[in-house]
UniProtKB/TrEMBL annotation:
GO biological process: RNA modification
Transmembrane as UniProt keyword: no
Origin: domain of life: Eukaryota
Signal peptide: none
Chain's gene name: PCMP-E31
Keyword set, alphabetical order: Hydrolase, Repeat
Species this chain originates from: Apostasia shenzhenica
Lineage, uppermost ranks: Eukaryota, Viridiplantae, Streptophyta, Embryophyta, Tracheophyta
PROSITE patterns: PPR
Protein name listed in UniProt: Pentatricopeptide repeat-containing protein
InterPro entries: E_motif, PPR_At4g14850-like_plant, PPR_rpt, TPR-like_helical_dom_sf
Amino acid sequence: MKQLSALARQSSDLAASSLPILPSLSKLQQLAAGRRLAGSRELHALLLTSGLLSSSPAALTSLISLYSNSSSPVDALAAFSSSPNPPNLVAWNAAISALSSNSLSADALRLFRRLRTNPALSPDRFTFPCIIKALTDLGDIIEIRKIHALLFKFGLDSEIFAASAVVNAYLKMEFVDCAEKVFHDLPERDVVIWNSMVNGFAQTGRFTEAKEYFAEMLREGIVPTGFTITGVLSVFTSTADFRAGRRIHAFVVKTGCDLYVSASNSLIDLYGKCHGLEEAELVFESMLERDVFSWNSMISASQYSGDHVKALQLFGRMLLAGVQPDAITATAILPAISQIAALASGQETHAYLLRHGITNGDVFLDNALIDMYAKCGSIDDARVLFDQMPQQDLASWNIMIDAYASHGRGQDALELFNSMTAAPNEVTIVGVLSACSHGGMVEAGREIFRRMEAGEYGISPAAEHYLCMVDMMGRAGMLEAAKEIAAKAEGAAGAKGWRAYVTACKEKGEVDRAVEVAERVVEMEPEWSGGWVMAANAYGWAGKYEELAAVRGQMRRKGVRKVVGCSWVEVAGDGVHAFVTGDKGHPRAEAIYAAVHGIAGWVRDGGCVE
DNA sequence: ATAGGGTTAG
């Protein structure tokens, strides 16, 4: 109360200068809503000084709901508690609502219990929806059942607002029979309670029921809303039923029902996940209003389609639009940065996340950061972050082991692997095997592979593991052993295994061995251009030009094209530059090629061979 | 004067 009077003194001058003497309450509300929290405080001060707060119960309730709508539940509760007169039931309801709609569920429950001890007041049809919502957030099924019984006691069991909240609660906690009973016992059902059924089933993975209720809802002639569309789209996205998702989009366009922001977001998500980048963009660009979900879904859609540059551009637009990124934005954007190895951008993004307190304790985000630092070459920074994590998950271990592997630090990878507190999975084993391979640690690698074959990790060797072993043996010059392992791998991995073997044969000058299996790669994976190129190269090394010409001829006839290699480099203060093989398009191409030749010369002079 | 339902991540 002391604080409030001080506040009143402070802002009464301001209020007096900008407002006529006691305008109507609704006018005040409009002004306050426009100015959000500051406006609410101004109104609060004015109501106190004018005495309106003690004479009008409506004034107190309006004030509580204003604070609630400006996301200030604590101020709402303070106004409620400091009321000069005992608050009436409407004020109690507004206060409970302020807490429950601002995620202060436990406080909402406490306030509700205090209301129950008040002999003069009983909860009504406005109280129940709020308290049920709070209990749903708390996941308290025991309390939900008690409150449900209480609804009958007060004769409010046919109230559709309370029933919607109850249905929502039961479905979230997978009490399907209870939810359906409440739903069917109602004398009338509106679109909201239908939405509760559809979305409740959708969220708990009961996709069939969700679709059935949606279909039934349409049969009953209920007009769907943006809430319905969002829920039903999430079903089709989860089940990868993109054609049905498209049909929903068409339905929305045809019936002209408003999409609202969330339903548009769900469409972007759907199109993003079915590689319909253009359609996702179409929806995104046509939105009049975008929230953080819109941006996150759109950035992820670029990301799924592999367009890292577009993802980064979108991120820039997001910041310009003044939308605050969150941890999900960061996990979507960091892989794009990693892909183009833009360390400066990565550091900048990390600093931004730290400044805005977005990093706190999100395992996904920490993993993305570790991966980014490792892929951008800053492996020791990656390790510092890894060690600082309060709790690493399996992905963290895998990322860090992979990081050491790709930096040729086999010993560090092996040490990390041996100190693992979590059980490894197949990805972990691939990482540690490739670390042994790149680090030339054949014996350690063979030992892990042997243990794997003996079932020690509970994982049986898969294609990738064979591939790692071929690579490892090949690099160590154990070509016969490499060949034996390549012969064990099948399918696409078999082809890659043979390619690894062929590469190793060439490295070791055993071109005859390479020629012997050159076409096996093509036989196994004729669609893969890499196999054809490999075969042609092998014949070239051995000087078998007739065979080489034959392979090239077949490649032409079949239209096999070599995929052009592409790389990026980040220049401090000058952004990211992309290059493809033989690229002369860069404004400073001449200087760049001169520098490359210079570096190649130093490397040769330093005694390095290919 | 006060009330119920929704989307995104390795």
